[in-house]
């Protein structure tokens, strides 16, 4: 952890290195997931039929999936990882959410 302020952080994690990029997030009703990593399967391509988490529609491009959702329980979150760098932000920290911000953080 080298930079953090309440609902976001930046860190270096040498134990989990991604060879290019992966991330996911939601901003209000827009969701996305991206992955360009040799150790991870490609994301689906085309219109994705997924009714989980209030998904209205999803479009997959192999390395990026974008969609609309009606689930606003976590209205603003994101998790991104590139090489050994991790970045996460979440408007309402929630320990049950997983890889984003689980509690308010501070690190300067």
From TrEMBL:
This is Uncharacterized protein. It comes from the Eukaryota. The lineage of its organism: Eukaryota, Haptista, Haptophyta, Prymnesiophyceae, Isochrysidales. It comes from Emiliania huxleyi.
